[in-house]
Amino acid sequence: MLKSKIIWFIPAIIFFLLPLSCAEQRSDPILKIGLHEEPKTLNIWLASDANSKRILSLIYQPLYLRAPDTLDLIPWLAADQPEFHPDTISYTVRLKQAKWSDGSEVTSADVAFTANLIKEFKIPRHYSQWKFIKKIETPDNHTVIFYLSRPEAIFRDRTLTTTIVQEKEWSQIAENAKKQKKPLRFLLNYKIDNPVGCGPFVLTEWQKGAYVHLKQSPYFFGKNRRIDRRLIGPYIDDILFKIYGTSDVAVLALKKGSIDMFWWGLQPGYLKNLQQHKGIKVLFNKKSALYFMGFNVRKKPFEDVNLRRAIAVLINKDFIISRILQGYGTRMDSIVPPGNKYWFCPDVDLYGKGLDRKERIKKAYHILRNAGYTWVVPPVDNNGHVVSGEGIRTPDERLMEPFEILTPPADYDPLRAMSGLMIQEWLRAIGMPAFSKPMAFGALLEQVKGRHEFDAFVLGYGRLSLDPDYLRNFFLSSNDKPRGWNMSGYKNRYFDQLANQSASEMNREIRKDLIWKMQKIIMADVPYIPLYDPKLIEAVRNDTFRGWVNMLDGIGNIWSFCQVKPVSR
Amino acid sequence: MKEPDRKNIFTPGSIFSDRLLENWSIFKENLLGKIGLTLLIIFAFMAVASFFTPLIDPMYNPMTGVDPNISYSTGPSFHHWLGTDFIGRDILSQLLAGARIAFMVGISAAFMSIVLGTFIGMVAGYAGKSTDALLMRLADMIMVMPTLLVVLILSSLFGQLNIWIIVLLIALFRWPGVSRVIRSQTLSLKQRPFIEAAKVAGASPLRIIFRHILPNVLPLSLLYMTFRVTSAIIIEAALSFLGFGDPGTVSWGMMLQWVWKTGNMFQAPYWLIPPGICISLLTLAFYMLGRAMEEVIDPRLRKEVEGE
Amino acid sequence: MGIRKFIFKRLIEILVIFFIILTVLFVLLRLSPGDPVSRIVDPTMTPEDAQRLIEQLGLNQPIWIQYGYYLKNFFLGNLGISFHYGQPVTSIIWSRLFNTIILFTTAVILSALAGVFLGKIASWHKGERTDTWLTLSALVCHTLFLPWVALIFIWVFAYKIGGFPLTGMISAEIWADPSSGFWLKLLDVAHHMILPLLTLFLIHFGSYLLIMRSSMLDTLREDYILTARAKGLTEKIIRNRHAAPNAALPVITSVGLSLAFSISGGALTETVFSWPGIGRELVFSVSNNDYPLAQACFLLIAIVVLLSNLVVDVLYMYLDPRIRY
Asked: Does ipTM surpass 0.90 in this model?
């Protein structure tokens, strides 16, 4: 009988295949890295997702980088610090001797080409950092002079850290794109099979859905050079990025030794188990992130600053951090993360810091009562005891309408979803009709950022730049438009004035003063209540490779990849 | 075309309750039916119990209650018989609440789809001609669409969906199977003398449908309902598991999603195993009940139901 | 009605249904609140940037114009460009489709064979202990919650016991090594396929078993079986030569009719096992608001289901001459 034979055949195959997985031994040291999801593209202009950026960061290089410990600007592709000429508002940058991965030289023409490409196509995410460049001169092959149309504070920190592409690779694509009806779309969707960069690694193969294979570039300019007191490698020949759909499986792979590092922030849930596991090291790093509760200050009830202040008092940030983040995070009292020491202003209104539940309710009650709010059942009774409040009325004597706190869903970010729930409970204790509502991420942003139809939300920025220019972006009156970053609709003319001044202030000390003032204003008006800055938890194997470089935003930085070496060596 | 058994033709005002008693005695003898019913009763107890847990202590509230002393997932203990989840919520109370949601979703979705399916089936069968053709083409069209994927697309498009909208969507996409069977049943009933008699007596089509046809197709509809409960529960669970459910409800699929996404899956078997077993057992219970009922109502209908 | 005329009529019907689905889907996707641009949470993305992207993607045009373009391109075989990957949808779909087909056909064939085989045994021992246990285990397997089974399999077989890959379709070590030959690579894929296959198998064989069993019981009551018995043929020959082939017909129908159901199950299996197939891509593109890709995946699934229904009908007519529509 054929059928019965087939049935016996299956276990036979299974048995036969079993040894295969045991054959996964590594002979030469390939660095294996787990990725959470498939990179979207190798076209650097389209790459807006974390995983594509990660792979491309090993291929395409910028002029300047941040030092891991001091976070200062370090010349990378550039030979030395940029020279500023205040009279012409221009910067001179000199380049190192470097080669592209096809062997040709990196010249100032490539830099000028990159800048012009971004400007000409108005490439999203890059254009805003380049549009104020008036003119670029290349007096020789290794010198570039940027002329700015006006002083811009972000030039040094943001513009000069953009990656440079090769003119040879892109000029033909750009020419073809210009002939299209939709040039930008053509450029963004152009399929790049083999990106030419000047970084430590080049692409060998991308097997869709499974892995990306990089090998050491023979032409990397940094090899054996000392940059920022570090002897730059790389000391590994191959990197294999393996794509796992879920973090669970990647963590298991790490435990089994199928990968040496998982390039993804872990949920605190994994910690206990990983820390006990032999051969695995867990690393903690600060993030430059902002997780916050935002209000719609365009309409009732949150147009009232007193209500926002009362809510800021009621929210127990320390509880969120100890309970929901399980201690792996820092409380935020200003929009700028405390880790960003230079720009962070510690001298802002701290609201309910250090108070217990009853004290919070009493303090919030006083703020609201003085502002004219009344209750059916006040949260603090005549004897001064805290009871559960009911039926809060706004100063116009009307019962407060139920409002929603929108959060991302639990699978996208359990921390924000849970924070929303906690906040809901705290607000209800004082009688506010708060409803936490988890929402699909795209729809949430559309509602908050696109249509401005919301009451309050909990959102976050996972990677804020070190330069605090975002502070201006988030609260400038003119950014209150559909898809604009002023999601709250905050308007303050004095703030606008300070903000615009800060953007063009080239003196760091004066700019710091302005940024501090801006933080104080925002924390007094609280259109956003900053909640927490989570710690980045990453895990690597310590029995295979060593030398990971800790840095703000984790060990997945170019320094690490130029320093990591096999344990045996 | 299959002829329904003669004994199962009910005329209006017939000995309905006697039939029911007789059927019950057949049902009682059925092993599958007994297992299914026992399981169902256990789950019903769980669902009822879920109303009482938050009253014992607020920390047993499945969604918002957290144990003040626990802030990560812990194994079974005296206060938490099945352990706690990643922020210290009690898993047992979530499991109980999940039973409630599963019953709610399963029964209401199944009920709606049966009402819709039966009505459309009767109308199509009785009216015939173009109405019939139109309705049946519509049924064909909906039938070929994988319900889970359709609801998935819809729930992701419109933000996340409220649990009741999910129920409604499941119902809207699960009626065609029912209406096909009801239609063929109606077609054969239409030829029977008592319908002719009613027509001659001047009864309106609606009256004929509800007074004369409905009582005869009702047992079949009820049978289908048990199978629809199964599929509704599975669809809701799968949807929640993939992260497209209603994040404001604690369902078993949602519990599985939490354990999967928060990285506790491999360390917390006490959290991973119970919801899966519950989903499987509850669907099994309804399925067994359905098969038992089917043998009572008409042993020859079996084939059409399987594979759903 | 002749078979040819029947097929023609059904094809027209399928075409109409397909275009209705296409249109409804298009409208739904375009009316949805999110758009691919709004998902980018990056302060460097200015509103002007976002607007420019929207224009470049053609999303600022009125919906009927977008629909017109879509139809036109559709007939030219161009399903658009994925918002997420920036690549033509067709090329993405083709690579994913292949993976899905391997997994699916293998799973369906294996589980149908096992279902037919075991169903036959169960029917032959009707009422005995073998039958009770087979039926009961088929019922249990059929109602198991698929993603949960998949997770448990990964946990038990790939983690606790070991010996199986955790997820994915190929292992990077083997494929990235230029010295690996074709057979090793093939073996590697087969090795990765075992657990997803086992999951799908477990869920599906139950229903085939139940169908086979009841169909076999019906068949055994037919006249020609009685004739065969009267002729004095052995029970084994009657069972295998006469009854089984006819009884297997409903299994074939069920394979076709339950395809929609199995595809949903496939999406779950693919997601849990990170199998790079159509179902996983659909789930992924839906959560990314990647309209062109989501639409294409769904349409592909719809057309596969529609056509396979037709094939089943035709096959049925061909195999069982009593049936005429």
From this structure: no
